[in-house]
Amino acid sequence: MSFDEGWAGWWRIVDSDMWDREALELLGPALLSLGTEDDRLRMIAILARVQPRPTKRGVSFTWEGADEFDPISGTGTASVAKDGRLKGRIRIKDGDETTFVAVRTEEPDEPIADPPSYRDKWRRRW
Predict the structure, then answer these.
(1) What pTM was estimated for this model as a whole?
(2) What is the pLDDT of residues 64-74, one digit of tens each?
(3) Can you tell me the distance from the alpha carbon of 25 to that of 30, in angstroms, rounded to the nearest whole number?
(4) Would you list the domain boundaries of the chain?
(5) Fewest CB within a 10 Å sphere: which of 3, 51, 65, 110?
(6) Residue 116, Cα to own-chain centre: how many angstroms?
């Protein structure tokens, strides 16, 4: 797998046709990492692990994690535009789909949290 296509690294999602910036950053800066040691997605209430695959035009990826405590997964595609921004689409399985625009950013000082398990949802109630 080759990650020298310009899309590898950390990206901050700054725009979406579905959610405004406040919603995107509910859990902190909306971030997507591709081709790093530990690829992640954090946006709205989603925390997920990402598995990218190079394509002829950029990258496609699957992701799996949690929306709050509920299991969630999906897919995405992206490519680097002429202006240097990452533009793509994220799909939630059996749910919403949105386009997004992201800008390069540094890896966060604190790692993105692991997605919580569904069991944790019930442990917190007692």
Answers:
(1) 0.89
(2) 999 988 999 99
(3) 5
(4) 9-123
(5) 110
(6) 16
